[in-house]
Structure to design on (358 residues):
């Protein structure tokens, strides 16, 4: 695993609330258990369960949100669990996605939720975080994954997720928030949430508006068989899609023609049984066809994985050697939502790492 940890990596599909360590969730649930808000033993069983079907995953998320959704906790999990953990994996660019949440009982609006996330990112002290274009302009370019103080450096950008349970108005509020927060590191929009809930037509007006405003969009696409929706999503021409598990021949053809990059989350797909085993995963065919793809984690906490573990799995399952895996990681630069200035800095990081590869 150590060799996969050492290569620089780009993470483009990671959900904030899916990326929390079990130990932290248990600690937070323990606190709420003492206050009588949750029954700890029930929560413990759900958190520690290893195999989870897709519907069970969404039940777990509802539970996680009960445990995490107050400003202080959102700030803490962002700082400790996500940014520091990803940086320790040698992730050099992280596009972290999260669903802005309104929670009246905690005095939380979608905006204050996002401010709590930003506070968590700014509070990171163990690694140097590059959060927005403005900060890049103030900081001299650093070509290595470590800066002059010897700290690792990670670029972090945010995607705001629209949950499929939301109304058109709520989706529009998220898009407007993303537009307002563009200068603060928000670079795009994601559509996620339980794939059997909600209609494409509900989210389309907000997604079209986002596209018109120049916000890049990624869609969770084809996690369940739904050819009509898959076709509509591909016709929308998002900048990327996630998963693409339940495609039929016609949809594969359309995808390949479109060249839309696919965020691949191997462990997530296997644990949730959207793909029966890694040997039949569509990674192999897409890779062979030279279709743009990016190896990602989805939810490192929920699926007990890491980006290095996903690289190790892909390498062993598909017979890819270190240099090929390195190229796969490097190619992801093309598909990030941040601008050319960041791409240039990432190119330099990978060029420097390539020299010490063997
Ligand atoms: P959050 O947005 O609260 O930070 O992260 C958790 C949320 O991300 C979940 O409630 C769900 O909406 C979304 N999510 C996480 N993993 C998956 C996944 O594998 N598929 C889909 N469709 N949504 C997911």
């Amino acid at each position: 695993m150590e060799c996969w940890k050492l290569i620089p990596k780009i993470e483009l599909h990671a959900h904030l609330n899916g990326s929390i360590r079990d130990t932290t969730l248990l600690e937070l649930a323990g606190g709420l258990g003492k206050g009588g808000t949750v029954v700890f033993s029930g929560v413990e069983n759900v958190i520690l369960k290893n195999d989870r079907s897709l519907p069970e995953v969404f039940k777990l998320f509802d539970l996680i949100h009960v445990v995490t959704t107050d400003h202080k906790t959102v700030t803490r999990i962002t700082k400790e669990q996500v940014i520091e953990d990803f940086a320790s994996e040698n992730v050099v660019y992280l596009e972290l996605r999260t669903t802005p949440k309104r929670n009246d009982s905690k005095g939380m609006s979608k905006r204050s939720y996002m401010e709590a996330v930003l506070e968590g990112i700014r509070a990171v002290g163990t690694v140097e975080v590059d959060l927005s274009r403005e900060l890049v302009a103030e900081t001299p370019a650093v070509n290595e994954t470590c800066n002059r103080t010897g700290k690792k450096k990670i670029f972090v950008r945010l995607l705001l997720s629209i949950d499929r349970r939301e109304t058109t108005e709520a989706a529009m509020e998220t898009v407007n928030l993303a537009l307002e927060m563009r200068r603060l590191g928000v670079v795009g929009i994601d559509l996620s949430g339980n794939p059997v809930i909600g209609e494409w037509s509900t989210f389309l007006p907000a997604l079209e508006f986002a596209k018109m405003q120049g916000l890049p969009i990624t869609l969770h696409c084809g996690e369940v068989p739904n050819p009509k929706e898959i076709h509509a999503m591909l016709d929308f021409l998002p900048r990327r899609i996630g998963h693409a598990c339940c495609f039929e021949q016609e949809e594969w053809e359309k995808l390949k023609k479109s060249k839309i990059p696919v965020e691949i989350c191997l462990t997530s797909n296997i644990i949730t049984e959207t793909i029966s085993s890694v040997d039949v995963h569509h990674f192999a065919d897409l890779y062979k066809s030279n279709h743009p793809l990016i190896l990602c984690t989805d939810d490192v906490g929920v699926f007990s994985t890491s980006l290095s573990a996903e690289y190790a799995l892909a390498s062993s399952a598909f017979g890819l050697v270190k240099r090929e895996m390195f190229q796969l990681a490097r190619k992801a630069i093309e598909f990030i939502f941040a601008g050319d200035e960041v791409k240039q800095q990432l190119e330099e990081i990978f060029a420097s790492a390539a020299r010490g590869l063997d």
In short: The chain has 16 helices and nine strands. The pocket of guanosine-5'-monophosphate is lined by residues 15-18, 61, 98-99, 161, 163, 192-193, 195, 220, 223, 268, 298-299 (CB under 6 Å). The CA atoms of residues 104 and 224 lie 33 Å apart.
